[in-house]
Amino acid sequence: MSGEHAAAPGxxxxxxxxxxxxxxxxxxxxxxxxxxxHARWFxxxxxxxxxLERDPDALSALAQIEGVEPVAADLEDGSPWPFPDxxxxxxxxxxxxxxxxxLPRLVASLAPGGFLLYETFAQGNExxxxxxxxxxxxxxxxxxxxxxxTLRVIAFEDGxxxxxxxxxxxxxxxxxxxxxxxDAVGGAGATPxxxxxxxxx
Length: 201
Description:
The chain is α/β, with parallel strands linked by helices and 201 residues long. The protein has a single domain (11-186), classed as Rossmann fold, CATH 3.40.50. It has helices at 13-18, 37-43, 56-62, 103-108, 142-147, 179-186, and strands spanning 27-31, 48-53, 68-72, 89-95, 110-121, 152-161, 167-175. The protein has a seven-stranded mixed beta sheet with strand order 3-2-1-4-5-7-6. A hairpin with a 5-residue loop joins strand 6 (152-161) and strand 7 (167-175). It is globular.
């Protein structure tokens, strides 16, 4: 991995790798933000970050980060989604968290041109450590199934990694392309206005 893609302290290398795709001043929804490692990463780059978290101590810490708006939300207790149905984000970021009923909502929350950056544990992780509960482990290709027919997949990985610790993971970078882009792709002739998703960062 090049120096350009070197992860900030605590930040996921996968999230760092694809963060260059976001437009300047993008609004990022950081789901299950925890201590704010990704909220800090995006806020430091001039993005507005809305950080969803249920832990009071974590929320207090998030409130101290410039450019981050903490929102208290327990996404698993049946509470309503804390945003209007029409709310859309330029990016939704999720790491080390899986609540399957939430997946359609996260996909629907992307604005046209918005990115879903997702990384969490997959089946097989029970052989190397925690989590080992199947409820928290993605089945093979499950993230692909969650976005199929809705988002364009730019990058996907499903396998084993030694760093930052031994784990089985799935990783996804996908975009909700604007209708004009989808029409251009399906049309005949040259399409010079198509977006280019730079794979090199």
